[in-house]
Amino acid sequence: MARRKAVRFTKKVEAFVRLERVCRVATSGAAGMPHVVPVCHAMSGGKLYIGSGKGRKVKNLAKNPQITVVVDAYSEAWGLLRGVMIQGRAKLVSGGPGFRRGRDRLYRKYPQYAGDAALSPSDSVIIEVTPTRVFSWGFE
């Protein structure tokens, strides 16, 4: 399968993804069953960074690196609904400088992360998402 080139975000969409606090991540393992969970994310250089233990999401990505991330904001005024769906490829970073850089990005955005859910190479990975498709709504 040919790899897609990384995509660029519009300024409005990038700012929205960067500032929102929670996103939903969808993965799929060998059997094809979707697995969707809410996570915290950070964005840098057009890529997303997510910290994770080594559970179902990571096991799925080890078998199938395709990932979808949804960042959205709900409003009772439906004319204000907006969101972004990012499809891409995930790279599991289990140590070294790449792990530390991803962890540092998450710790800067979420100061409580280091104390409440510390990320260590011994029991965690950083998921680096390279977007290949971006769909957005509500940014017109």
Give a written overview of the molecule:
It is a single chain. With 140 residues, the chain is of the alpha+beta class. The protein has a single domain (11-137), classed as Electron Transport, Fmn-binding Protein, Chain A (Pnp Oxidase, Chain A). Helix content is 25%, strand content 39%. The radius of gyration is 15 Å and the shape is globular.
What characteristics describe this protein?
globular; Pnp Oxidase, Chain A; 4 helices; 140 residues; seven-stranded antiparallel β-sheet; alpha+beta
The CATH class designation is: Mainly Beta
CATH architecture: Roll
Count of folded domains: 1
DSSP helical segment count? 4
- Strand arrangement across the biggest beta sheet: 2-1-5-6-7-4-3
Kindly name the structural category.
Answer: alpha+beta
What would you give as the CATH superfamily? Electron Transport, Fmn-binding Protein, Chain A
Provide the gyration radius in Å: 15 Å
What proportion of the residues is helical, as a percent range?
25-40%
Average the pLDDT over all residues and give the rounded result: 94
The main β sheet shows up as: 7 strands, antiparallel
Number of strands: 7
Uncertain segments are none
